[in-house]
Specification:
With 304 residues, the protein is α/β, with parallel strands linked by helices. 38% of the residues lie in helices and 23% in strands. The strands form four sheets. Strands 7, 8, 11, 12, 13 and 14 form a six-stranded mixed β-sheet that branches. Helix 1 packs across helix 3 and helix 2 crosses helix 3.
């Protein structure tokens, strides 16, 4: 064990690699090579005289000692970042990195034009967008904020409306499919149709929900295809090709409906739900890039 104290850079590198569960993943976040990150962690382990990470060909995970060090490091590193970020207040325009964890639906639809306007206003802020449909621990993931729907928010998080305030799940199929198999007249008819399903990354296939005049139905129909939200376009294209019905965000299907490639099915039963929220951990001093983004989304034009 070395008597020389570890450098802040090596400690920060270890924390990043441990949080990202891999050197390549940490390299993508930091812009450094995986080999340089590995050298920094080895140097730290040599100085401390204890192994901090268990390495396999597929993943990296903290050892017991590494997990203990990480739990103590995270608050300290957050305080250092907060102290340095105070300097942003002395500049004309904030700078730094804003890391957002967002679902596929947000990244695909309303977020892109919003981010374009934000980048025009704040050219010194680098946006790091992580597309992930799972609800994540913001601190553990190294993200400043996330976007999720209300039912997925923790009570200790601060949540602000972002994007459309109301959305719908839509059901559609190609004209050729409906001509061949008939148009469903009631949601229960879907149990006799080919349905192109979606599933969460956990493997759970999500149900199809419908509502009309206070009557709510939840179905688990069968079909020839199941996809995760990250590749939902596969289900859309399969529907366009006539392989079955697709159930997805209305905004996602809107271009295909407008072009006549898909036709709406049972629109009177489509379920509406509140739009998404930006969520972040409440703390006295927010990083300047996050503060700028919060101020930005609270302007009326940014939520249009």
């Amino acid at each position: 064990m070395s008597t020389e104290p570890p450098s802040m850079a090596d400690l920060s590198t270890f924390a990043l690699v441990a949080q990202q569960r891999g050197f390549r993943q940490a390299g993508r976040v930091s812009g450094q090579s995986a080999s340089s990150l590995s050298q920094a962690v080895r140097r730290l382990e040599t100085q401390l005289g204890i192994r901090l990470l268990e390495r396999t060909t597929r993943s990296v995970a903290p050892t017991e000692a590494g997990a203990l060090l990480l739990s103590r490091l995270q608050p300290a590193l957050a305080q250092v970042a907060s102290a340095l970020d105070v300097l942003n207040e002395l500049r004309d325009s904030p700078r730094g990195t804003l890391r957002l964890n967002v679902p596929v639906s947000a990244a695909r639809h309303f977020l892109q034009p919003m981010l374009n306007r934000f980048m025009d206003l704040y050219p010194d802020i680098m946006l790091d967008i992580v597309v992930d449909n799972n609800f994540v621990d913001l601190v553990a993931s190294g993200c400043d904020a996330g976007i999720r729907y209300g039912e997925r928010l923790e009570q200790d998080m601060i949540a602000l409306p972002i994007g459309p305030r109301s959305e719908r799940f839509a059901l559609a199929a190609s004209p050729a499919y409906l001509a061949r198999r008939g148009v469903p007249q009631h949601p229960r008819d879907l149990l006799r149709h080919a349905c192109l399903r979606g599933k969460f990354l956990s493997g759970l296939v999500y149900p199809w929900e419908f509502e009309r005049d206070g009557q709510r139905l939840t179905l688990d129909p069968a079909g020839p295809l199941i996809v995760t939200p990250t590749v939902a376009d596969l289900a859309v294209q399969a529907a366009v090709a006539g392989h079955g019905l697709v159930y997805l965000f209305e905004d996602w299907l809107a271009p295909y409906l407008a072009a006549g490639q898909l036709q709406p099915v049972l629109p009177e039963w489509w379920v509406s739900f509140p739009g998404p929220f930006l969520y972040y951990a409440g703390r006295r001093h927010l990083p300047a890039p996050l503060r700028a983004f919060i101020d930005f989304i609270q302007q009326p034009a940014s939520t249009a």
